[in-house]
Design brief:
The chain is an alpha+beta fold. The strands form two sheets. It has a seven-stranded antiparallel β-sheet with strand order 1-9-6-11-4-3-2, with helices on one face. Strand 7 and strand 8 form a beta hairpin. Helix 1 packs across helix 3. The protein is globular, with a radius of gyration of 16 Å. The termini are far apart.
């Protein structure tokens, strides 16, 4: 972690942002060493052919359409987590517990995948919570890009009024930046980049109403 700001204070910033406006952007949430190790894992998976084209929609109705979504993904949790993944999940578990403690969200797990956007790839406006399925409650995006510049593009555009129309903010995918927002509230999209764009994207979920 960034040695200058304790994790507990960064988590407090997340709680305050979610409580007050439904979203928060925090720079340097994880240390450079953690970010570099996660970035290396994502690239190794890509080189090994372990990443697959991402689809849109629910699993049983998922569609592949690069004009809508062009990233490659690899879900975490299918294999034994690496040491750096364990560090990541330990920190995110503390965040989950804090969200439940302060905001009573009933979050019980985090699902995560690496995402690599080739140059020019996009993800058009969407919500992270599927219609008729409220399990995804809080979205978390950690950027792993090294030396990202404004001219590289690839911003995350977040629409602020609960619709897919302006006003909006653009978040550049700088290394170590963590974006957290309410999954059901904020339409968002990924703008095209001029270079490869890497993130670790996830969702804190609540249990399905159909589960005991």
């Amino acid at each position: 972690m960034n040695s200058t700001i304790p994790l507990s204070l960064k988590i407090d910033q997340v709680i305050e942002g979610i409580a007050n406006q439904g979203y928060v952007v925090i720079e340097d949430f994880f240390s450079l060493d953690v970010i570099a190790a996660l970035r290396q894992e994502a690239r190794q998976l890509h080189l090994a052919g372990a990443m697959q084209r991402a689809a849109t929609g629910k699993e049983n109705m998922a569609k592949l359409d690069a004009a809508v979504r062009g990233d490659l993904i690899h879900w975490l949790g299918n294999t034994e987590p690496s040491a750096v993944q364990q560090d990541f999940f330990t920190c995110m578990e503390q965040l989950r517990e804090a969200l439940n403690r302060h905001l009573y969200l009933g979050l019980f797990e985090l699902e995560n995948h690496f995402a690599i956007y080739p140059p020019g790839a996009i993800y058009r406006k969407h919500l992270d919570q599927f219609r008729g399925n409220e399990e995804r409650q809080v979205s978390c995006i950690l950027y792993l890009n090294e030396d990202w510049k404004a001219e590289d593009g690839g911003a995350l555009r977040i629409y602020l009024e609960g619709t897919d129309s302006p006003p909006a903010i653009d978040v550049m995918p700088h290394s170590g930046t963590l974006v957290v927002f309410l999954s059901a509230k904020f339409w968002h999209e990924v703008l095209p980049a001029r270079r490869e764009r890497i993130s670790l994207t996830g969702w804190f979920r609540k249990r399905s109403d159909s589960l005991p």
